[in-house]
Amino acid sequence: MEKININELTLEELEKYIEELGEKKFHAKQIFKWLHKIGVTDFDQMTDISKSLREKLKANTYILELQVLECQTSKKDGTQKFLIKLQDDTAIESVLMKYHHGNTICVSSQVGCKMGCKFCASTKEGFERSLIASEIEGQLQTVQRYTGEKISNIVYMGIGEPLDNYDNVIKSIRLINHPQGLNIGARHISLSTCGVVPNIYRLANENIQATLSISLHATTDEKRQQMMPIARRYSIDELLTACKEYIKITGRRISFEYALILGENDSYEDAMALVKLLRGMLAHVNLIPVNEIKNGAYKKSKEESIERFMNTLNSCGIVTTVRRELGSDIDAACGQLRKKYLEKRENTKM
Ligand code: SAH
Questions:
Q1: Which residue has the least CA distance to atom 21 on ligand 1?
Q2: Which of 133, 168, 236, 272 has the most CB atoms in a 10 Å sphere around its CB?
Q3: Confidence band of 13 (pLDDT split at 50, 70, 90)
Q4: Which of 8, 15, 93, 137 is catalytic?
Q5: Residue 306 is inside which H or E element, if any?
Q6: Ligand 1: which residues within 6 Å by Cβ?
Q7: How far is residue 46's CA from residue 26's CA, in Å, rounded to a whole number?
Q8: Has this prediction a pTM greater than 0.85?
Q9: Residue 130 C-alpha to ligand 1 middle, in angstroms?
Q10: What is the torsional sign of CA 131, 202, 184, 63?
Q11: Using N-to-C axis directions, what is the helix angle for 166-177 and 133-147, rounded to 10°?
C-alpha cells in the first residue's frame, strides 16, 4: 500500500484517519500541531505521541519535506529567493521579503503557468502541474525551517495562477490559517489573479478574509488582449463586475496591479482611463515598473512617467503606490531559477 502524505490532511480528515488506525481522535490535534504549527520532519519529534502510534504513522504515512536546492540573498535588502524541489523532481520558487511590519513570503501555486502573459517569466517555460495544498503550505514550513525566520504574511504571487488551481489554493489558505497550524490570519494573506472571472465569484463566497489583487495592466480590452491571453476570455467589464461583487460580498478592498511599460500603457491618457474604470470602487492601485525579462518586448517606463502616472491617480482620489523593488540584484522576479533548473534537468537526462 502506498504511504499517504500526512501533511495534506485537514484536521477533520486526520481525526478520521487516526480513528481508522484504531486510535483516539484527540491525537489528531496533537499530530496536526506538530506538522503544521511546529513543522517537524520526523515522527520521533512528536514527543507527546506514544511510540506505538508513531510507528503506525511511519508505516502508513510520510511527512512531506521539500528540498531547498538554492537560496540567493540580496545584498541590498536581504530578500531571499529559494529554488525548491518537489518530490517528483519538479521545482518551484519562493521569495522571502523582509519589511518593517514582518516577513512576507511569496509562494508559487503551480509548477509553471498556462496563462501566457507576455511580460511574465513564469509562463515562458510552460506548465507542468498544479501544486497540492501541502506543497503550498510546505513552502512556508521549508523557508521558516531553512532561515529560522517567522513568516507573518503570504502573497500568492509566485509561479502559477492561483485561481487556475482553485481547490488546492483554498485548502492551502485554510491550512495556513488554521488556529492549530501556522495560524496566520486571512487578512495577512493576499491572492493575485490575472482575472479568472468565475473563480472570483467563488472566492467571494468562501468566507475567507484574504486580500484580492487583480492583475489589470491595461485599460482597454484590445490592449489587454495583446498582453494577457485571459483577456480574450473575459472582458475588462466582466472582470470589474466580478470585482464589484467581491467587494460587495466581502467588504474588502481590492488591489489592482498595473505594470508600467514604456510607451505601452504609461501615458497621462492611460492614467485617466484607469481613473475612469476604478472611480467609486473600494480599490487601491499598485504600480509595478515592469521587470524586463530576457527576450521580452517590454521596457520599463521612465521614472518621470511612473511619477506622473502615480500623481494623476492619487490626485483623482485613487490611492496609488509604486511597488518598491526588492531583491533587484538577485532578480527576484519569478521563473528565472526554475528556468536554470529545467535546463540542468534536461541535460542530465541526455
Ligand atoms: N498569476 C497571478 C500571480 C502571479 S504574478 C497573476 O497574474 O496575478 C504577480 C504579479 O506580478 C502579477 O500582477 C503579474 O501580472 C505581475 N508580473 C508578472 N511579470 C511581471 C513583470 N515582468 N514585471 C512586472 N510585473 C510582472
A1: 291
A2: 133
A3: very high
A4: 93
A5: helix 303-315
A6: 117, 119-120, 157, 161, 192-194, 215, 257, 259, 288, 290-291, 293, 333
A7: 14
A8: yes
A9: 18
A10: negative
A11: 40
